[in-house]
Amino acid sequence: MKKIIVVGSGILGASAAYHLSRSDAEVTLIDAIHPGRATDAAAGIICPWLSQRRNQAWYRLAKAGARYYAELTEQLHAEGEKHTGYARVGALSLHTDPVKIEQMRERAEKRREDAPEIGEIQVLGESQVRELFPLLNEGYLAVRVSGAARVDGRALRDAMVSAARRNGAKVIEGEAALNVAEGRVTGVQVNGERLDADEVVLCAGAWSGELLRPLGLDFQVTYQKGQILHLGMRGQPDSGAWPVVIPPTDQYLLAFDDAKMVVGATHENGVELADVRVTAGGMHEVLEKGLALAPGLADGELEEVRVGFRPFTPGFLPVIGRVPGWEGLITANGLGASGLTMGPFLGSQLAKLALGLETNLPLEDYAVEKALGEK
């Protein structure tokens, strides 16, 4: 029986462990539970089709990730995980300029040709927009995409870890260090115990560079701090059916069940991984932009602020594959702000790599070498 260790239980590692647990492999999932894990704070907008990014390799991965949700959630439900945090509620991509709205509509129509999961595409007037999301300011038009979704990253991660446990996976909390011998990663050291493995799958996000440094590798993963505000909105009992809101700025707005609203987020560079503080400046930025977008949020009750570090690899393009020069070591990283869109699908591909199966991706486009510098 093949022994496989997954290091990191964010959305990516949880997915890898879950998919591996459905095989005959012996699976161990290890996580240090660092404050600031990206999955704990991520907003969860699943709508890559309206993106203006021109990198086709990125879009191919994001599109595959969005498409994979239907299969994954159906599978989890069949295995008894009823609360995945996923809901197909549609999205409103906002703008005040009718020309920009038309350009968005054309882009969505074109992309629907090979992504029918986009669903229905509509251009909505101001009154229609505010009917669907009553807290919004006046003056916005929108392109509505019915196939878009939102996901609670913590809930989905927990569902996959729960299913993996039920399938026999072992879950350990602790700081892992890689064990090596003659050009091979042989397992990990965690909590004073040596665990051997045929394959180690590294999904440690912003902390991956530290884990790979003892191997003489300069793994170029950077990170961006995000502060995300959670509000309670009394008197909005049907909020769980409201669409995701994507404004023309770098902010966003999501509504969840029980009148929960998520407003985000800051994009802070040049910070330390230890800096998980909620700052006055960060909250001012989020609230200023959020209230300009949706004045109806002003009556919201502050419930929580989450802080997470989005990991990026060079060119803002994720990497996935075997780590050059080291047998038995596989990794993926650099999902950035699209972690919840791409993570479950990429985790399934990591599982295939570890099991020696063919992946559904042209891995050369996402080669790990692209994130390795000269040591």
Describe the structure.
The structure is a single chain. The protein has 375 residues and is α+β, with helices and mostly antiparallel strands. The chain folds into 3 domains: 166 residues, FAD/NAD(P)-binding domain, CATH 3.50.50.60; 57 residues, no CATH class; 89 residues, D-Amino Acid Oxidase, Chain A, domain 2 (2-Layer Sandwich). Helices cover 29% and strands 28% of the residues. It has 9 helices and 22 strands. A hairpin with a 6-residue loop joins strand 20 and strand 21. The radius of gyration is 21 Å and the shape is globular. The mean pLDDT is 95. This is FAD-dependent oxidoreductase. It comes from Saccharibacillus sacchari.
Task: Draw up the topology in text.
Elements: E1 3-7, H1 11-21, E2 26-31, H2 38-41, E3 45-46, H3 56-78, E4 86-87, E5 91-95, H4 98-112, E6 121-124, H5 126-132, E7 141-145, E8 149-151, H6 153-166, E9 170-173, E10 176-181, E11 184-190, E12 193-196, E13 199-202, H7 208-212, E14 218-219, E15 222-232, E16 244-246, E17 252-256, E18 260-264, H8 280-293, E19 301-312, E20 319-322, E21 329-333, H9 339-354, E22 372-373
Organism: Saccharibacillus sacchari
EC number: 1.-.-.-
Enzyme class: oxidoreductase
Taking all Cα atoms into account, the compactness measure Rg is 21 Å
Shape: globular
Largest sheet: 6 strands, mixed
**Roughly how much helix do the residues carry, as a percent range?**
25-40%
How many structural domains in the coordinates? 3
Give the number of DSSP strands: 22
Indicate the CATH topology of the largest domain.
Answer: FAD/NAD(P)-binding domain
Mean pLDDT: 95
